Amino acid sequence: MKLTVKLFAYFRDDRFVAEVLDLPPDTSIQDIAVKLDIDPDEVGILMINSRQSNLQAKPSEGDTVAIFPKVGGG
Amino acid sequence: MADKIFRVNMTDLTTSIDDVPEAWAGHGGRGLTSTIVSEEVDPTCHPLGPRNKLVFAPGLLSGTVAANSGRLSAGAKSPLTNTIKETNAGGTAAQLMARCGCKALIIEGQPKDDKWYAISMTPDSITIAEETDLVGKGNYTVVKELKEKLEGKQAVITIGPAGEMKMTAANISVMDPDGNLRSNGRGGLGAVMGSKKIKFITVDPKDGKVEIAKPDEFKAANRAFGKALVDNQISQALATYGTNVLVNVINEAGALPTKNFTLGQFEAHDKISGETMHDLINERGGKPKHNCHAGCVIQCSQIFNDKDKNYKTAGFEYESIWAMGADCCVESLDDIAEADQIMDDLGLDTIETSVAIGVAMEAGVLEFGDGPGACKLLRDEVGKGTPLGRIIGNGAGSVGLAFGVTRVPVVKNQAIPAYDPRAVKGMAITYATTTMGADHTSGYAVATNILGVGGTVDPLSKEGQIELSRNLQIATAAIDSTGMCLFIAFAALDDPDCLPALIDLINARYGLSLTGDDVTNLGKSILKTERAFNQAAGFGPADDRLPEFFYDEPLPPHNTVVDFTPEEIDSFWNF
Ligand code: SF4
């Protein structure tokens, strides 16, 4: 399945801002993080199609997955 | 040396230094300003008249070496909202006032003549002098000239031309350690200072020090507290990207108010994002991390340079960048920085003023996206006090009234900040119920709705939001009393060592034995004190509502509306 994966903050360093990835069905966000060499413990915010999500969630064909480290502001 | 109350009466130009009444002794920061305003200000008074009072109070831990403890609270009846107001800022003033033994500075009355004055504080004196040279000058000039003139390291609290003109978006600025500006931003307290004809206040602690009841315990607690802050990953990201890291987060969540609150995402978000800003700062030789007062270990502030690598602005915050950026559809960080610098110099709240410009754009005064036009409007109209400039300088509500715009994002006449309440529903409750008028800091439900801090709740659902906002507002009222920067909350919500260390610090400073429950009760009682003031000023449940377009106009991309019933909102106060 094809997914758009967007990365933010330092997760972009030596990776990418946004890319379409072709992944096997049943891939979880955790699997994507591992594939991109992102430590799941450093992941702070996850969204699928702009909705809050979690590492175990499995996106579907055509979804947009956004992966942020732990960040905040105000 | 016991702490004292410093008082200045601008009607007869007298001053006094008095003992702290027993009922005020356990208070600091917001708790103290709100207690004093409640006790001494008639809630029905005109905020710009002689019966209002302007109160400054360092936090309970300010002036000590406790990490991040240098926030200064300012309180009064707000001319923008007509409610009680507390607004806090960094800079060096809180620490130096505390070292003067000043528990609070209360400014009352109003001069009968047309002269301007300056106030200076030392540990054993508080004096009023006529001021002529710096009247009419911008904040950057005031700070620069005073820095040259004053002996030793002194604090400066000042208003710009907007405060002199009593615009209700006027802020109070506080000098930071590098001679840049931080602001007591919201609620128009700069206009209150202007109404008292005070251009600036200087604070010289001489060799004054804050006494610590139990120094060894204090040291140990500060070590634990500092460690909790430094170890926190969000603190670390704040140092790298500043608060502006949120542009991309809130945009992705569909909650970034765009084009005067008609969209939840801004197409050009990446051009104004924290990531882009971080790269630009490095390219142009600025500083990505910087602290607004000595002792801050988080360092969310930064120095942003222009294209020619010259200083442009410091403390370039998410709220300011969102308001002039997405809300006004301005895509250039340089235009936004220019506007930020003009507003800092004039002494204007960047949230209120930029949201006002967004409403003016909707009214057709200028085009959405016109950054240079916005800067010109600020410089030539607001700065010069033309009729149009005064309409804008009196905030978003004022622009809506003047131009007949109904989509005016305000609660209690204060502009709503950078999180659309239709897509972060916890913020709908905070904006509606806070005693301050729309204010994100008073109950930052974004943490749990979007950032995954302190648990998670679904930002698009009503579930759990009222309780969340209530708990956060109570905790925030207490934190705002300590002098702590609110960004300690990220560690406090997720690191079990953080809050106990903070309570240990307060106990060691004063020789007390407060518990967590005492701190929660303090927060509750502050909220109730503030609400009682507002009720006596004429506010009721009907004022705890959002503008109707939030209930009627679905916000893309989620196409949700605010759907809390009046009864649900009012249940916030069941505690
Ligand atoms: S974290 Fe930011 S706002 Fe807070 S004290 Fe430090 S520099 Fe100031």
Helices, strands, pairings?
The complex is a heterodimer of chains A (74) and B (575).
Chain A: E1 2-7, E2 18-22, H1 29-35, E3 43-48, E4 51-52, E5 64-69
Parallel strand pairs in A: 1-5
Antiparallel strand pairs in A: 1-2, 3-4, 3-5
Chain B: E1 4-9, E2 14-19, H1 29-40, E3 54-58, E4 72-77, E5 84-89, H2 93-99, E6 102-108, E7 116-122, E8 125-131, H3 139-149, E9 155-158, H4 161-164, E10 172-175, E11 181-184, H5 189-195, E12 198-203, H6 215-231, H7 233-241, H8 246-252, H9 274-283, E13 287-290, E14 301-305, E15 311-314, H10 318-324, H11 333-346, H12 350-362, H13 371-382, H14 387-393, H15 396-403, E16 410-411, E17 414-415, H16 425-433, H17 446-449, H18 465-482, H19 489-494, H20 498-510, H21 516-536, H22 549-552, H23 566-570
Parallel strand pairs in B: 1-6, 7-12
Antiparallel strand pairs in B: 1-2, 3-4, 3-6, 4-5, 7-8, 9-10, 9-12, 10-11, 13-14, 14-15, 16-17
Helix pairs in contact in B: 1-18, 1-21, 6-20, 10-12, 11-13, 12-15, 13-14, 16-18, 18-21
Bound molecules: iron/sulfur cluster.
Largest sheet of chain B: 6 strands, mixed
Q: What is the domain tally of chain B?
A: 2
Unique ligands: iron/sulfur cluster
Q: The CATH topology of the largest domain in chain B is what?
A: Aldehyde Ferredoxin Oxidoreductase Protein, subunit A, domain 2
Number of separate helices of chain A = 1
List keywords for this structure.
heterodimer, A: 74 residues, mainly beta, Ubiquitin-like (UB roll), five-stranded mixed beta sheet, 5 strands, globular, B: 575 residues, alpha+beta, Aldehyde Ferredoxin Oxidoreductase,  A, domain 1, Aldehyde Ferredoxin Oxidoreductase Protein, subunit A, domain 2, 2 domains, six-stranded mixed beta sheet, 15% strand, binds iron/sulfur cluster
In words, what does this structure look like?
- The complex is a heterodimer of chains A (74) and B (575).
- Chain A is 9% helix and 34% strand.
- Chain A has one helix and five strands.
- Chain A has a five-stranded mixed β-sheet, with no helix packed on it.
- Chain B is of the alpha+beta class and 575 residues long.
- Chain B folds into two domains: 4-203, Aldehyde ferredoxin oxidoreductase, N-terminal domain (Aldehyde Ferredoxin Oxidoreductase,  A, domain 1); 222-573, Aldehyde Ferredoxin Oxidoreductase Protein, subunit A, domain 2 (Orthogonal Bundle), CATH 1.10.569.
- Helix content of chain B is 39%, strand content 15%.
- Chain B has 23 helices and 17 strands.
- Chain B has a six-stranded mixed β-sheet with strand order 2-1-6-3-4-5. A six-stranded mixed β-sheet of chain B has the order 8-7-12-9-10-11.
- In chain B, α16 packs across α18.
- Chain B is globular, with a radius of gyration of 22 Å.
- Chain B starts with a strand and ends in a 5-residue tail after the last helix.
- The interface between A and B is medium-sized, with 21 and 41 residues.
- The complex binds iron/sulfur cluster.
- The site of iron/sulfur cluster has 12 residues of chain B, from loops.
